[in-house]
Every structure is written in C-alpha cells, then in structure tokens.
Design brief:
This protein is of the alpha+beta class and about 240 residues long. Helices cover about 30% and strands about 35% of the residues. It folds into two domains: about 80 residues, Gcn5-related N-acetyltransferase (GNAT) (Aminopeptidase, 3-Layer(aba) Sandwich), CATH 3.40.630; about 140 residues, Aminopeptidase.
C-alpha cells in the first residue's frame, strides 16, 4: 500500500507479517508527520518492527529523528557508462527471464543470500517495478536457471537492482557477464550512470564491481530499523 502525501510505500518485509518495510518513493525525503502516521497504523496492525529500504544520508534524517537506528550499512557504487562497450566478456549466453523461471530464480536467490536479504516473489516484483523501465536476464545450465540479474532505468540513472549466481556455478564468469550485459543495456537505453549497492561483508561482489569500473560513493546507504510498541488488547 502507499501512505500519505509523501507516498511512503509499505509492505511486509520479505513476506514476514511481523515486520514491515517502509520505502520512500523517489523525491524529497518524507515529512516526520507522515512517518509518524504510518508508524501508528502499523502498530495498530500488530507489526512488531519496521525496516526501511536502503536510504541515503539525506533520506535518513526524518527517520533518525523518530528513533530509527542503523540496522545495516551498505556500500554504494557508481559506474560512468562512457566506456562500457570496451568491457570484455566470457561469452556467457543470457536470455530474457520468463514467468516460468520464477521458482528457479527464487531458488538461486535463496542459495546466494543470507536469510535477511533473500527475495520472495514480491521482492522480485518490486525490483522489476522500482523503475519505469527494467531488464530481467537469466543464465541457464541444463535448462535450470543458475544466475539472474534485474536492471532498471529512470531517466539518465540506471540501477543494478539484483544479481545472484548459484554457489555451485560461481567463479565461472557468470556474474561478470551479467553485470556487463546490464551496463551495456543501460548505455543503449540512454543512461549515463549506474548505481548498485552491496553489503559491507560481500567482498566477492565488491571486488567484481570495482574490477568492472564501479567506484565507491563516500557515504553509502543504510537500512534503518525501529521496534514498535506492543498494542494493548481491549477486553
């Protein structure tokens, strides 16, 4: 659902009915009053805690004033798309992701990420719908999906929304080629830059992105969290 004039998008976190996620839609940071009304509604609906999407320092200010705290810090990386045509590839074939790939894609996602970060069907849909234009590519082996990437574009800025490769098929150049495919697609679509975030502890992803020409933004992003008060049951 969307809440208030500031357009806060609210949904269960990864399908957990006890944890809500608040995602400010693109634009200026939401007002404190809008967040307070949203928190009151979530408390009434018996949510136990709230997480935000990954926020920049400017976007965090109204949440921090309401006693949100940092749950996890993420690296934010940027790539200028000037030279992407010159990036080498390993020749990994990719194809468009289809509806019938969903179960395989989720299996790859679950094997690739810590439970906190795993996508469900709604997470996949949100990643594809987060931008006006998106690209969903998969890599298959013996007819099963072993890697996938979701890329989006909003005006001149593109986003590598999700990248996952099954652990049994890592270190074969699949992730490298999926990222190159994403960069080249974004360039063809008129984007001038690409952003991606990754966990601080994900050294393999960080090394891959930097090898392909991404550079670290200074501030990074934070996922914020706040525990909600328990609702009292009326007799």
């Amino acid at each position: 659902m969307q809440w208030g004039p500031d357009l806060l998008r609210v949904s269960p976190w990864r399908g957990d009915s006890r944890v809500a996620q608040i995602t400010p839609l693109p634009g200026k940071p939401p007002k404190v009053a809008s967040i307070e009304r949203c928190l009151a509604l979530l408390t009434e609906r018996n949510y136990q805690s709230v997480l935000t999407s990954a926020l920049s320092p400017v976007e965090q200010h109204p949440f921090l004033s309401l006693q949100f705290s940092v749950h996890e810090h993420l690296h934010l990386l940027r790539h200028s798309l000037d030279q992407v045509g010159q990036l080498p590839t390993n020749g990994t074939p990719t194809r468009r992701g289809r509806r019938g790939d969903r179960s395989d894609v989720l299996a790859v996602d679950h094997r690739s990420f810590h439970p906190f970060w795993r996508f469900d069907q709604a997470g996949i849909a949100d990643a594809r719908d987060a931008t006006p234009v998106s690209r969903f590519r998969v890599v298959t082996f013996d007819r099963a999906v072993v890697g996938y990437a979701i890329t989006g574009r909003a005006g001149p800025v593109s986003y590598l929304q999700r990248l996952a490769v099954d652990p049994d098929h890592q270190r074969k150049g699949i992730a490298h080629d999926l990222v190159v495919d994403a960069l080249q697609w974004a360039k063809r679509r008129g984007a001038s830059t690409m952003l991606v975030n990754t966990q601080e502890r994900n050294e393999a992803a960080l090394n891959l992105y930097r090898k392909l020409g991404f550079y670290l933004e200074f501030a990074g992003l934070d996922v914020l969290e706040r525990v909600l008060p328990a609702t009292s049951l009326q007799p």
